[in-house]
C-alpha cells in the first residue's frame, strides 16, 4: 500500500515511464526466487519484491491511462484497465494450475512468470510512451487555478480530510475494499457454517469476482455518460443489500444472488472512484492524489481482513 503512494509521488516528480520500468525491473527476481526457494524466507522475500513491483506498475498504468483518456472517457479507461488486470490474474491462475497439475509445482509454473516479466519490461521500454506531458498540458487548460505544486504532506491531507470531494472518494474506496476483504475472509466461513459443500463455496467465491470483473467493462463507460456520483451511491447500496442477503438467508440460491449483487455493486464503484479522482484534482498533481487515494482504498483490505478475524472469533464461525 505504501508503494502506491511512493510510485504516484515519484510519477509527478520524475515521470510515469521511469517508474513503470523500475517496477518491472524489481519484478525480475520474483519467479527465480520462487523456483529455487530453499526456505520460507525466500518465499517471503519474493512476495516483498512482488508487492513493490505491483504497487509501482499497477499504480503507474492507472495514472497513465487517466492522463491519456481525458475527462470524457476516463471511466471507460478505468473500467477496461481494472477488467484487464483482474481477468489476467484469473487466466494466470488457471494456466499455472494446469501446468502444476500436469508438470509439477516447481519450477514449471513459474516459467510463465519469467515470460510475463520479460514481456512487461520490453513493452515498457520499447513501446510505452511518457504521459506526464499530457497531464501538464491538461493542467494549463484546466478551469482550476494552476498554483504552485503543493507539498506531498499537503496533498496527503487534502486527499484524506481537507478537500470534501477527495476525502469522500477516499472513504468510499476504503469501505468498498473493506467489503471486499470481508467477502474473501469471512463469507467462506459463513457459507461453510450454513452447510454449503466445498464445490458450492468455490462456486460462490468465483461468482463474485467474475461478475465484478466483467461488469467493469460496462460500469466504467456508464459513468462517463451519466456521471460518477449516483453510480457510486447506488453501487454502495447494492453492496449493502448483498451483504444483508447473506446475513438473512442460508440457502445456496440466495447466496448466489448475493454474490452476483456484490459483484455488480463493486463494479459500479471501483472504476468510477478512480475516474472521479481524476475529475476532481488538478492534473498537475493528479498522480500524487491517486496514490493517496489508493493507499486508503487498499487499506480497506487490511481492515476487512482484521474485522473478518475478529467477527469469526466472536461468532465462533470457525468451529
UniProtKB/TrEMBL annotation:
SUPFAM superfamilies: MFS general substrate transporter. It is found in: Cell membrane. It is a multi-pass membrane protein. Pfam families: MFS_1. Its main location: membrane. The chain crosses the membrane at residues 18-36, 42-63, 83-104, 110-128, 230-247, 253-278, 299-318. Signal peptide: none annotated. Residues 1-319 form the Major facilitator superfamily (MFS) profile domain. Keywords: Cell membrane, Membrane, Transmembrane, Transmembrane helix, Transport. InterPro entries: MFS (IPR011701), MFS_dom (IPR020846), MFS_trans_sf (IPR036259), MFS_Transporters (IPR050171), Sugar_transporter_CS (IPR005829). It comes from the Bacteria. This is MFS transporter. The lineage of its organism: Bacteria, Pseudomonadati, Pseudomonadota, Betaproteobacteria, Burkholderiales.
Amino acid at each position: 500500500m505504501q508503494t502506491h503512494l511512493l510510485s504516484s509521488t515519484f510519477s509527478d516528480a520524475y515521470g510515469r515511464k521511469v517508474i513503470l520500468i523500475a517496477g518491472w525491473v524489481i519484478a525480475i527476481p520474483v519467479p527465480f526466487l520462487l523456483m529455487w526457494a530453499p526456505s520460507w524466507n525466500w518465499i517471503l522475500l519474493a512476495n516483498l519484491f512482488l508487492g513493490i513491483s505491483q504497487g509501482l506498475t499497477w499504480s503507474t498504468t492507472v495514472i497513465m491511462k487517466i492522463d491519456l483518456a481525458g475527462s470524457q472517457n476516463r471511466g471507460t479507461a478505468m473500467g477496461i484497465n481494472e477488467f484487464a488486470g483482474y481477468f489476467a490474474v484469473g487466466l494466470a491462475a488457471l494456466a499455472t494450475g494446469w501446468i502444476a497439475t500436469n508438470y509439477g509445482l516447481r519450477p514449471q509454473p513459474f516459467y510463465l512468470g519469467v515470460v510475463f516479466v520479460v514481456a512487461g519490461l520490453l513493452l515498457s521500454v520499447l513501446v510505452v510512451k511518457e504521459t506526464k506531458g499530457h497531464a501538464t498540458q491538461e493542467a494549463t487548460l484546466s478551469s482550476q487555478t494552476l498554483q504552485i505544486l503543493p507539498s506531498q504532506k499537503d496533498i496527503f491531507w487534502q486527499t484524506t480530510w481537507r478537500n470534501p470531494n477527495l476525502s469522500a472518494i477516499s472513504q468510499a474506496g476504503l469501505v468498498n475494499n473493506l467489503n471486499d476483504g470481508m467477502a474473501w475472509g469471512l463469507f467462506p466461513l459463513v457459507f461453510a457454517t450454513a452447510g454449503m459443500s466445498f464445490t458450492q463455496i468455490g462456486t460462490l467465491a468465483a461468482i463474485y469476482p467474475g461478475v465484478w470483473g466483467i461488469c467493469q467493462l460496462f460500469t466504467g463507460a456508464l459513468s462517463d455518460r451519466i456521471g460518477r456520483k449516483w453510480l457510486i451511491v447506488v453501487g454502495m447500496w447494492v453492496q449493502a443489500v448483498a451483504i444483508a442477503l447473506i446475513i438473512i438467508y442460508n440457502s445456496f440460491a440466495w447466496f448466489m444472488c448475493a454474490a452476483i449483487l456484490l459483484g455488480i455493486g463493486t463494479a459500479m464503484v471501483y472504476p468510477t472512484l478512480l475516474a472521479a479522482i481524476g475529475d476532481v484534482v488538478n492534473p498537475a498533481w493528479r498522480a500524487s492524489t491517486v496514490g493517496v487515494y489508493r493507499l486508503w482504498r487498499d487499506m480497506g483490505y487490511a481492515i476487512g481482513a482484521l474485522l473478518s478475524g475478529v467477527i469469526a472469533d466472536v461468532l465462533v464461525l470457525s468451529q
